[in-house]
């Protein structure tokens, strides 16, 4: 048990990618160390904050992207729920998670926060994977997260993750072994810094990035989950540096939802009546 804990400690870099099993697609980099993902057909479609070092490619991030799209379109999720669920789905691309066998190990405190934000969003049991997933357009039995689970631990387990079961101080050494605690958020923070082998590019956005990094240094660790999701791609990027739900943020979310609906119609044209039937069968 101690050995497996040590592998999670920050700075550990000797691990090799191990497919997570369960609902998570196998890594094409199985048996190799996490590495930088280049552009092309295997580029990450989500979770790009991990591009510099990850076991993931498009095989892992595409299902995560579809999950977020369903949550936004038919899951009736709040903005905070979308942000946190995105961060949860991207756990598989964290290089510290990818070198450990078994589904991603999530911190209890983070699962609780996801449950609190997503308790009113709609989910269904995926017939293929037998795990809880955001309600889709073709799902006839959907229920709120609070109807499927009574707390964060139950929600994460039902969604196919493992949960850190240690009882103790959240944010302390107990949470260094799981995803969603201070150690993993610090690791994500480090990924924002430029590589030592890369020369910084002077662009019009450099001031924004510098301000962001300074803002991050001054931020309490328990608030970092809010900006961490901003670097994952789908929602607001570096512009998500405010905790307020501004008018601009609501406009961005609405634009994402409209674009996703158009894509949904093109990929899977179905009569509008089917959605009415599905909603009528929600638990």
TrEMBL record:
It comes from the Eukaryota. Residues 40-158 form the Folate receptor-like domain. Keywords: Disulfide bond, Membrane, Signal, Transmembrane, Transmembrane helix. The keyword Cell membrane does not apply. Residues 269-283 have a biased composition (Polar residues). Residues 262-283 are annotated as: Disordered. Coiled coil: none annotated. The keyword Signal applies. It holds the Pfam family Folate_rec. The chain crosses the membrane at residues 225-242. This is Folate receptor-like domain-containing protein. The lineage of its organism: Eukaryota, Viridiplantae, Streptophyta, Embryophyta, Tracheophyta.
């Amino acid at each position: 048990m101690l050995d497996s804990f040590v592998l999670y400690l920050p700075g550990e870099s000797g691990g090799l990618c191990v497919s997570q099993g369960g609902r998570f697609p196998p890594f094409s980099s199985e048996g190799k160390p996490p590495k930088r993902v280049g552009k092309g057909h295997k580029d990450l479609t989500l979770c790009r904050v991990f591009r510099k070092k990850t076991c993931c490619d498009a095989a892992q991030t595409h299902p995560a992207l579809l999950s977020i799209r369903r949550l936004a379109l038919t899951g009736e999720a709040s903005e905070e729920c979308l942000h946190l669920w995105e961060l949860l789905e991207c756990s598989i691309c964290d290089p510290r998670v990818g070198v450990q066998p078994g589904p991603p190990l999530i911190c209890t405190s983070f699962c609780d926060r996801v449950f609190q934000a997503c308790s009113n969003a709609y989910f269904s049991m995926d017939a293929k994977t037998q795990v809880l997933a955001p309600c889709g357009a073709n799902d006839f039995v959907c229920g709120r997260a609070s109807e499927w689970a009574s707390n964060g631990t139950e929600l994460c387990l039902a969604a196919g993750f493992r949960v850190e079961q240690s009882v103790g101080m959240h944010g302390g050494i107990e949470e260094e072994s799981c995803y969603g605690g201070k150690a993993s958020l610090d690791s994500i923070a480090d990924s924002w810094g430029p590589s030592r082998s890369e020369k910084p590019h002077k662009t019009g956005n450099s001031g924004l990035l510098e301000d962001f990094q300074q803002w991050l240094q001054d931020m309490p660790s328990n608030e970092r989950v809010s900006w961490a999701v901003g670097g994952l791609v789908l929602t607001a990027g570096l512009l998500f540096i405010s905790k307020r739900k501004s008018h601009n943020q609501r406009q961005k979310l609405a634009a994402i939802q409209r674009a996703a609906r158009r894509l949904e119609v093109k990929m899977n044209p179905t009569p509008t009546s089917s959605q009415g039937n599905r909603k009528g069968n929600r638990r």
